[in-house]
């Protein structure tokens, strides 16, 4: 694989709980970032907890959608749109050649959005969609993983005016097309929008959020909690907290290491470029080479030891808040980043999963906040 613009190696250091100084680029991205609650609603700055670093009340412009005509090249390919319509703040996972799109939000027909139970399946061989049994409860930002040919949903967010964390957990069997309840997340650890990774029979969740209140000044309650669920024993366990709280973050396990990339901390204005790594054999969190572009609301997937990150929210261009189009790849062996061909349709609030050496990215929003789309794209790194 040939990738352009390799960025320098970063020396490992033990991660601390003291936030690193904000770079010029981080500061520029942070200015004017806003939260929109639903399709076309007027927006304002998201509210961090009182006294939390990075809290800002500066006025910001309204979000607008990118107007550029999509150009598919350099590994990007358009696919059949999501059959059930626009979707955002969902999660995706792979079983065999099928990509499962689970939960999320959809337009409600009245200018807003609603949380859904819907599960749709994209057949990557035939470029077709079908429906699967819906979630037992409606969820957005579900924590989703595939292990042993089954899907596991371990908590998420749901609700009306304010989305709250759910402890509810389920396993889906594609053979019987049924969902079965699992032991709920331990009380106090419930959250959605966590970084998710799988190692053996354990699913790891890092960070996330307990509350997301859409709309002007809405509360976003980010956590640093790290936990694991063993699909064989049905038991939950705790791991060392992240050095800093994160949500809307990328995650993957490569070898014996859990990686947590980018994200944000209690509001879109607080985008981060950090990369944290935890040795699952008993190590402690260390900080690796930072992302070239600080971003929250990203999608991430791993292929051949490289973690690919896509899109995100909070990009300010000419005073207007837009989404990111960046595709950036982190080589876990070399501790280096590369900038790759941008997304043809920039989005945030989407998710990514790999089938072989191809990454699938269905849905997401093309404006800050809630702006679901039915776009379904594939990215194949080897064609770069």
TrEMBL record:
Residues 56-69 have a biased composition (Low complexity). Residues 1-21, 45-69, 363-384 are annotated as: Disordered. It comes from the Bacteria. Pfam families: Kelch_KLHDC2_KLHL20_DRC7. InterPro entries: Kelch-typ_b-propeller, Kelch_1. PANTHER family: GALACTOSE OXIDASE, LD33804P. This is Kelch repeat-containing protein.
